[in-house]
Amino acid sequence: MIIAIEGIDGAGKNTLVHKLRDALDIPVEVLSFPRYADSIHAQLAQEALYGRMGDLTSSAYAMATLFALDRHGAKSQLEAAAESSSLLILDRYAASNAAYSAARLGDDAVMDWVYELEFDRLGLPKPSLQVFLSTPVEVAAQRASSREAEDATREKDQYEKDSDLQAATAAAYERLAACNWAGQWIATADQGSIIGKVLDLVGE
């Protein structure tokens, strides 16, 4: 089973992932995207987000393709999890591509393009549940700024610095959840409700 945790920067995704691990009594693996330590595609995207790849970030489609190829590099692990009795929790998945791309372009049509790229052309498995951790944008921004101030290695990238983009991305996530894009969703800022839903799903 695969469960994807989605949200804007500073939403608390990593905290939620750890709470889920503690609450579950089945084998749990965690995989975070982008895989900056392991994937050349993620590393190129990161370089671009820090202004070291020329005008690459000017293309939402180019950036989305790099992030999708990063996930494709983990396809065997994703497929194994989808077919096993254990649980793989993802910190970001394909919906992050759909939300950020739609926010950047101001056009939800790109959501269909991301779906076709990641699930059809690249053949990635769909998650059993996608969670939008809908932390208020202002709260998430404060957390991201505090994280940067406390840790010199967590300098904000171009996406994280753009408050308008973060707000537009949160709104895009809401629309993805409302239409159950690529499967079942839950959208809430209440981490207890999310943990309860996951426990129910695992129990089923």
Automatic annotation (TrEMBL):
Its EC number is 2.7.4.9. It comes from the Bacteria. It is an enzyme of class 2 (transferase). GO terms for biological process: dTDP biosynthetic process; dTTP biosynthetic process; dUDP biosynthetic process. It holds the Pfam family Thymidylate_kin. PROSITE patterns: THYMIDYLATE_KINASE. GO terms for cellular component: cytosol. Residues 5-177 form the Thymidylate kinase-like domain. GO terms for molecular function: ATP binding; dTMP kinase activity. The keyword Transmembrane helix does not apply. The keyword ATP-binding applies. Keywords: ATP-binding, Kinase, Nucleotide biosynthesis, Nucleotide-binding, Transferase. Belongs to the thymidylate kinase family. This is Thymidylate kinase. The lineage of its organism: Bacteria, Bacillati, Actinomycetota, Actinomycetes, Mycobacteriales.
